[in-house]
């Protein structure tokens, strides 16, 4: 079975440019999570969806960040405009159900974003 | 996350030695996960613990959740170079936390051959 798929794997862009990260969850999973990982702050939850509906976006750092899930097999995380402090590894994860106490989140390989 | 404390931050052990990593919270946890992350790669699920006192093993890795569901330990027996990486504990805060999952800062394990 294919795991969570993320693209691109690496992205280098200049400050001010728009960046779009993509994620395809595991088929049949109803919940999708976006995380950001940095050395300073560790792994942080940005936003999560259940059945394509955003449930909690309180982790999104600013209005420059937005996420969508137009269907069960695709989600995007967009940063516009990007800034150097956005440089990080962005992970997407999916699980069968939303209740994490009973289900496991499976992580994608991540997108390493560098903003110059 | 400061809500989930991991110790030690890093660990260097000689191949063949046993080691323990701890994960502690001041709150009751609804589901405790252990993940392993190889440097520069994604997270690999190891184990999930739900019940107080629960213990699970996979190959040479054993994880326990205490009775109060506030602390978990990960024990590796006879460590090997393949065990090297970053070990992260994650936990669900339950309904009051809006089903959010938080993660510890990670423990960096180095195994000397």
How would you describe the overall organization of this protein?
The complex is a heterodimer of chains A (116) and B (113). With 116 residues, chain A is mostly beta strands. Helix content of chain A is 0%, strand content 53%. Chain A has no helices and eleven strands. In chain A, strand 4 (31-38) and strand 5 form a beta hairpin. The relative contact order of chain A is 0.33. Chain B is mainly beta and 113 residues long. The N and C termini of chain B lie far apart (32 Å). Classes of the chains: A mainly beta (116), B mainly beta (113). Chains A and B meet through strand 5 and strand 10 of A and strand 5, strand 9 and strand 10 of B.
Gist of the model:
With 116 residues, chain A is mostly beta strands.
Essential attributes:
heterodimer; A: 116 residues; mainly beta; seven-stranded mixed beta sheet; four-stranded antiparallel beta sheet; 11 strands; globular; B: 113 residues; six-stranded mixed beta sheet; five-stranded antiparallel beta sheet; 0% helix; 54% strand
Topology of this structure?
The complex is a heterodimer of chains A (about 120) and B (about 110).
Chain A: E1 5-7, E2 10-13, E3 19-24, E4 31-38, E5 42-50, E6 53-56, E7 65-71, E8 74-79, E9 88-95, E10 106-107, E11 111-115
Parallel strand pairs in A: 2-11
Antiparallel strand pairs in A: 1-3, 3-8, 4-5, 4-9, 5-6, 7-8, 9-10, 9-11
Chain B: E1 4-7, E2 10-14, E3 19-25, E4 32-37, E5 43-49, E6 55-58, E7 61-65, E8 71-76, E9 85-92, E10 101-103, E11 107-112
Parallel strand pairs in B: 2-11
Antiparallel strand pairs in B: 1-3, 3-8, 4-5, 4-9, 6-7, 7-8, 9-10, 9-11
């Amino acid at each position: 079975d294919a795991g969570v798929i993320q693209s691109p794997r690496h992205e280098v862009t200049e400050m001010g440019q728009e960046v779009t990260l993509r994620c395809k969850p595991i088929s049949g999973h109803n919940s999708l999570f976006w995380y950001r990982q940095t050395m300073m702050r560790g792994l942080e939850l940005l936003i999560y969806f259940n059945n394509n509906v955003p449930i909690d976006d309180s982790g999104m750092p600013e209005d420059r960040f937005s996420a969508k899930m137009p269907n069960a097999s695709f989600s995007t995380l967009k940063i516009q405009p990007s800034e150097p402090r956005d440089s990080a590894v962005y992970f997407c994860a999916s699980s069968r159900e939303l209740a994490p106490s009973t289900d496991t989140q499976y992580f994608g390989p991540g997108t390493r974003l560098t903003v110059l | 996350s400061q809500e989930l404390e991991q110790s030690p931050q890093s660990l260097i052990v000689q191949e063949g030695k046993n080691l323990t990593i701890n994960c502690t919270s001041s709150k009751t946890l609804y589901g405790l996960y252990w993940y392993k992350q190889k440097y520069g790669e994604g997270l690999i699920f190891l184990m999930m613990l739900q019940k107080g006192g629960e213990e699970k093993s996979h190959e040479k890795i054993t994880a326990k959740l205490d009775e109060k569901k506030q602390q978990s330990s990960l024990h590796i027996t006879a460590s090997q170079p393949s065990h090297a990486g970053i070990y992260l504990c994650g936990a669900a805060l339950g309904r009051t936390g809006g089903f959010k999952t938080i993660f510890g800062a990670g423990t960096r394990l180095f195994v000397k051959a």
